[in-house]
Design brief:
The chain is mostly helical. A 3-stranded antiparallel β-sheet has the order 2-1-3. It is 64% helix and 7% strand. It has a single domain, classed as Triger factor/SurA peptide-binding fold (Orthogonal Bundle), CATH 1.10.4030. It starts with a helix and ends with a helix.
Length: 228
Amino acid sequence: MSSTTRSRRRRYALTVSGAAALLVAAPLLTACGNEAHPGAAAVLGGDRITMGQLQGKVNAVRDAQRAAPRGEQLIKGSGQLTRATLDGLIRDRIVKKAAKDAGVSVTRREVGQARAQLQAQAGGSKKLKQVLLQQQAIAPGEIDNRLRMQLLVDKIAKAEGIDPRSQQGPAELNDKFSKTSAAMHVDVNPRYGKWDTKKATLGNASDPWLRDLTGRQADLQQQQQQPS
């Protein structure tokens, strides 16, 4: 075998092995490009919301819905549950960061008092759980966490001199949390959409930061829609 032939074979072997290496690397590069944080549903300033955490919250709601009267109807009415749940998890972290920046906090006693008040308004603990599950897809085990977030929003608003119940209050609150979320560099897994920093929400939703957890507003709207 001539030296020229051996040289050609060596070049061919190198070319084949190089192509194989590129083929092996290609899926890895693609995966990194599509998902910068594998296993994370979202990342906020280094704080990860894992797929497992998100799915756990979703499963808790689904389990409660299945066990509730008209469970199938509740499930059909919450088709965007995963995205809505992720939006809530992101908001929770934004509120905590804003609360830390504002120097405010909420105690267990305050949460307990707020829950007792809501239960009295709703007609008992069981009724409150039903209302929150039906109207806002909140699992029974998440009520205290949602109350804590709402109390923090109230305190943040007070610290910032914002009246959330005034005409301009919701917009001022949104601006406050928009700036906080921008500073946290919210990065959402593309499969769930994209975080809108200006609206401080996931996707095109525009949910208020301060919600009516009693369900009174929804009940009133339902009564108004019924024919007299």
